[in-house]
TrEMBL record:
Keywords: Hydrolase, Protease
Protein family per UniProt: Belongs to the peptidase U32 family.
Organism lineage string: Bacteria, Pseudomonadati, Campylobacterota, Epsilonproteobacteria, Campylobacterales
Protein name: U32 family peptidase
UniProt-recorded Gene Ontology molecular function terms: peptidase activity
Source organism, top-level taxon: Bacteria
PROSITE patterns per record: PEPTIDASE_U32
GO biological process, one term: proteolysis
Length: 420
């Protein structure tokens, strides 16, 4: 049985390290202005980007560079220089959307694999074959694809690797090429500057073209204004089917602009699901619980297991963002101190989330305790003492003081609490 690679987003160097610690087999990231996430690309310098590639390889994992924007003529020469610069860092693959950029990458860096972006909208084996013959070793199929159709592509092209999105935000246009942001704000989504206009609230009007009379349409107060807001994709419940199909080479999580906790929790949940499915121990409720702790727009399983005309639940008309079941309160990057992300108060219990297979020591000190309760680990502070020795009764996000942990935790551990 083919066990798919787990591919996680790396929005910056810290998120990259978190994704790898929490079980990713590979990460994808970008630098400069040639990807569809220019905001995350700005969080890397060339130096930290090269460090990220080196760190990933030292972990025995893979690093893919996203160069999937659609360039204009004036960008071709800078793009050539970018390809030369990044190829010298020895990433494992380039993620590219267009035939022209594919050809350019093959000319400049013939030894680096080409992965075709979902932006190319491959939905059948004819298109897949053409791109494969052009040099793509892997294709990220369109999100509209069914698993049945993906199986057909693999049957026709057994040497072509296939990657699918399994989790994350969904574009209103699904596989991209959306122009709403460009029309409304001049921000080109196909060049990495999407303003997320589909998430906005809209008022609807009806106009009589003969009289010019304009009527505002009355709407259900519970919804109707978020007319283009797609729910987030979550295929966590279907990982067993995906693994058993034997045709998926890589399961990809969207989210380079999401939080550190998102990078950790989504990676951790899908790592557990893939490993358990491969060993015949799949328990969907366990993974669904973890995914539901994340902020989201509501979840849909998209079209991989259902045809588009069968679906009526892929949009959230009520809200552009919903809270998950848990609030993240702190992160510890080094295992010795925490940085507050929401609020930490003495004498309150916080659940510890740490990388899979990490060892959490239980114990007590003058600062607090770590204990096991029904298979989950919890931390409770007796007092909050900063690195500089300052004592707090409570600490909130925005306070830069790092607080000493009572017992050392695994690196990149989080403290969270369930909403009541």
């Amino acid at each position: 049985m083919l066990k798919p690679e787990l591919l996680s987003p790396a929005g910056n160097l810290t998120k990259l390290k978190i994704a790898l610690e929490y079980g990713a087999d590979a990460v994808y990231a970008s630098v400069a202005s040639f990807s569809l996430r220019t905001r995350s690309a700005r969080e890397f310098s060339l130096e930290s980007f090269e460090e990220g590639i080196r760190y990933t390889h030292e972990k025995g994992k893979k690093f893919y560079v996203t160069i999937n924007a659609f360039p204009f003529n004036g960008q071709i020469e800078p793009l050539k220089r970018h390809l030369q610069t990044v190829s010298a860092m020895k990433p494992d693959a380039f993620l590219i959307s267009t035939p022209g950029v594919m050809s350019l990458a093959k000319e400049i860096a013939p030894d680096i694999d080409i992965h075709l972006s979902t932006q190319a909208n491959v939905m059948n084996y004819l298109d897949a074959r053409i791109y494969h013959e052009m040099g793509a070793s892997r294709i990220v199929v369109a999100r509209e694809m069914s698993l049945k159709d993906v199986i057909k592509i693999k049957e026709m092209l057994p040497n072509l690797e296939i990657e699918i999105f399994v989790h994350g935000s969904m574009c209103f246009a699904y596989s991209g090429r959306c122009l709403v942001s460009a029309v409304q704000s001049g921000r080109q989504s196909n060049r990495g500057s999407c303003a997320n206009d589909c998430r906005f609230k809209y008022e609807l009007y009806a106009k009589n073209p003969e009289s010019g009379t304009l009527f505002r349409l009355e709407e259900d107060p519970e919804g109707g204004t978020h007319v283009m807001n797609a729910k987030d994709l979550s295929l966590i419940s279907h990982i067993d089917e995906i693994v058993k199909s034997g045709v998926i080479d890589s399961c990809k999580i969207e989210g380079r602009t999401k939080s550190e906790y998102y990078a950790a929790c989504a990676t951790r949940a899908y790592r557990m699901a893939i490993d358990d499915a491969a060993s015949g121990k799949f328990k969907r409720e366990k993974y669904e619980f973890e995914i539901n702790t994340l902020k989201n727009r509501g979840f849909t399983d998209g079209y991989l297991v259902s045809r588009p005309y069968e679906r009526v639940d892929t949009q959230n008309h009520t809200s552009s963002l919903e809270e998950g079941t848990h609030q993240v309160h702190a992160i510890s990057e080094d295992g010795e101190f925490i940085k507050c992300k929401f609020k930490i108060v003495a004498n309150e219990a916080y659940e510890i989330v740490s990388p899979l297979d990490s060892i959490i020591e239980v114990g007590e000190s003058e600062l607090g305790s770590v204990y096991d309760n029904n298979g989950k680990f919890w931390l409770e502070f007796k007092q909050l003492v900063s690195k500089k020795g300052k004592i707090f009764e409570e600490i909130h996000s925005g306070n830069e003081n790092e607080i000493k942990l009572p017992i050392k935790l695994p690196k990149f551990s989080f403290l969270r609490k369930e909403f009541k």
